[in-house]
Write a structure and sequence with these properties.
five-stranded parallel beta sheet; five-stranded mixed beta sheet; 3 domains; globular; about 20% strand; FAD/NAD(P)-binding domain; Ubiquitin-like (UB roll)
Amino acid sequence: MVQYKILGPGIQPASQTPAQTELRVHGTDEVMTLPVVTSTKVLELKEFLSAKLGIEPSDLQFITRAGCSWRKQLDHEEVRRKVLVSGIRSFKPQKAQYQAPFLIIGAGHIGLRHGIYLLQRGFTNFVIVDRRNKVGGTSWISQANKTSKLQTELGTYHLQFDENNPVPVGMSTWPSRDELLEHFAKVSDEYGLTPYIRLQTNVKRVDVVGKTSVDGPLGDVHTEAVDENYSGVDTPLPTGREIKTFPASCAFMYPGNLSLPRKYEYKGEDLFNGYMEYAMFDTVNYDEVVRGKVVMIAGHGAFGVENIRTCCEYSAKKIYMVCRRRNLACPRVCSWLANQSDPPIPGSLFVDSLVPAYQLVDSDPWTHHSVTANANRTSVHINQKSRFGIGDVYFLAISMGKCEVIVDDVKRLSEDKVHLESGRELQVQTILKVFGFTGLYEVDRLLKIKTMTGWWAEGDNRRYVASENPGVYAANFASTSLSPGALGWSQQATHMMWFPKDWNRLVASGALPSNKADDEISRPAYVLDAVTALSMQFMIPTICPALGEVQMNNAVIKRSKQLECHPVERFLEECANEWDWYGKTWKEEDPSLKDPPSYPYTLTMVKDYLRSAGQSAIKS
């Protein structure tokens, strides 16, 4: 029985008695039944439909039967139990229609993922262009070398990553560069994407007409053929061949991870007698300059950690990693833990999971510069400029004495020597520079970007640019891999073109962050830092519930794919077997090394982590 409180003469509170209202689209059989209370007003349900469908509440009319006739309900009235809704054709959002194709620039992981996303939804009016002669993108065609492997796990890094497709079969947990390039090409063929891809095609100019899709198509796109052997990241040389122009409704650009090496020249480089190179773009012949040599790796980012593994595989005699600050690196188990999570792993648990590996190298992750925690370490935040280098070899190589991490500055070089600011001298034969990457100013030029509004250029829903963000800024950890982000970006960019009223609502909120180029650190406007990206991850679906509904299962997909590909027992066995193989191999090559320690993680430990996170190791 509903209880009322006397508020004054003739005043009673609105009834909260539960009820249901049946909404029917006028002229159709489509029905939606919603839970309400007796006092629910017409305007409340109009606002619900407005958010769901990306329309204005004033576009809707609620019509109900009054005796033998019909009448329009007013916004302030209590909604009736059966209502006809006019002003819409369906309770499903209606997509905007475009004649000119959608343009996707970049046939790497994200561009291909976006193409598959469109095909799965019956949308075929798009084209993908890329400068190279095969699919795969900057990271795997230009930056990787033949020993490069995926640092994260296959389960959250593959083109079949969505709610409908099966996981890949017959691939390694940490596939090599060539294995991944074969996967990209194979999936593009099997899923019918290849006919929509134009390779060896450079976009020279994009005309921008108007401000958003409300003003019509984006404008003309001007392309030119590229030489077949092009595989770089810089603007290709003009060829004058196959110059074409076509209209595009929008441009989604995926320029890859940061593309150009950040450069720094040491004093005395002309005196150094050994080999020195930026260790990216497959320019280093590791067999010649690493095997049996003493190597210095300059930098402690993700690519630096990757180069430790590469140098170990090429039997370097000794590795020095010299860096100004020691960033957090991520053992494979901790990466797996984040990628299988739903909800995300709390920062305190994530740092705790790093401890067993860091104990092997006499270090405490809790004391690292990037970790901020409260006194009892229940609330943790990680903030560092470099992304995590992921891998177990880093910890094994340091623990056995094959690699030494030195936090210091290089003062100068001399013949076969590196002189550090501390006064220490390193006798080395090879220096590999890995100071990280910078973005391409060409992206800003091509899409005429002075200010980014979120992921969008100049507040234009027709110009979308997304790439992995430099650095780590998080208090909880949901993923260390690209596929969850690639799916989310594809959904987001497409949604704002198909439902431009949601875009108008998002812009009107004033919540989207803005970003301009920062020439002091060589950062173009399109490169958003981790702080900016994190803010949008939660804010955009909240302001646009229809997009939130599209993305609501993304975390479930991530967990499902990860556990299907990598059950915890099998994953731990693979990690331990590889650890033991490396340790045995290095010890045989150099008996002076310390004996390899046992793998620092056990099944019991991992299950304890899962229990602390309120999760299980079984796919739900």
